[in-house]
């Protein structure tokens, strides 16, 4: 099967091959691809894939010759002369260093397959995309009401408040590209009806929106509209709910909640504080650059030419934007939609 981003014309095409295919695996793959805002290529479309993903039914160990490169709460990254190895609790991924190919190794039960396979496919697609000319960025993007050419990026690690602030903006009439994962477009894909001609465009790489329980309750969202079967809601079910279109439409003042892409003009780097009032503090491009790079595929895992492309694309994005530290205080905690007013202050446009 071949998959491609739903919102992008002539976007990257990845081929997925499954060892020991089953109806359960096929259903989970379809759900994961849909949740990623990707789609299956039609059988009669003869696209040459940009990359290959093999899904194995066995979990293998990390080679003894591997060297540990990085370790965090999600898992460990290793390297050998021929592969990068990404080790997670439920699966392991081997990325070939000289080609756009990855192998997913899993040993699962039927109860575990859905969430594990969905997260694994998301990880692999994210890791392969820079090799195809599309740069993933862990960030949210919203387009404020009345400002269709003024996209705002919220860049930060998990827990920084991206989804909650995005939801608050939606409740003030904004539109959302994504609340979690974006693609920075290739050079030739810059022209779009949703972006300024020649600007650096970002596209959605996640369809659903997931909001933490605390924000869900504070904003008075109806739990009848919570998605209970989304593949990315399974592992984090106690922490986040998937927000359905029905729930968003009841809380938003605009009928059109989504937009396929945007050409951002502002970048916000949120930090949660205990101060009573939030504020925006301008930062230089040089100061903002490490924050953006920290939310991309690590440069050490990329060939030199892809590293250069990622850095150049990030620099181009910063050149078209004004960057700010968002010191998010208690006012945004109680009313995330206040960000819309904060963006209109003279401080925000200084």
Mean pLDDT: 83
Whole-number count of domains: 2
What's the main sheet like?
9 strands, mixed
The CATH architecture of the largest domain would be 3-Layer(aba) Sandwich
Structural class designation? alpha+beta
* Beta strand %: 25-35%
Tally of helical runs? 9
Gyration radius from CA atoms, angstroms: 20 Å
CATH topology annotation of the largest domain? Rossmann fold
| Largest sheet strand order | 3-1-2-4-9-8-7-6-5
How many beta-strand segments? Answer: 22
Q: How much helix, percentage-wise, in residues?
A: 25-40%
Distance between the termini: 50 Å
Query: Given the C-alpha coordinates, what overall shape results?
Result: globular
Kindly provide the name of the CATH class of the largest domain.
Alpha Beta
Which stretches are poorly predicted, pLDDT < 50 over at least 5 residues? 188-195, 233-238, 346-350
Give an account of the 3D structure.
The protein has two domains: 2-132, no CATH class; 136-342, 3-Layer(aba) Sandwich (Rossmann fold), CATH 3.40.50. Residues 188-195, 233-238 and 346-350 have low confidence and may be disordered. The longest helix is centred in the middle third of the chain and has 19 residues, at 110-128. The strands form four sheets. It has a nine-stranded mixed sheet, covered by helices on one side. The protein starts with a strand and ends in an 8-residue tail after the last helix. A hairpin with a 3-residue loop joins strand 6 and strand 7. Helix content is 25%, strand content 29%. It has 350 residues and is α+β, with helices and mostly antiparallel strands.
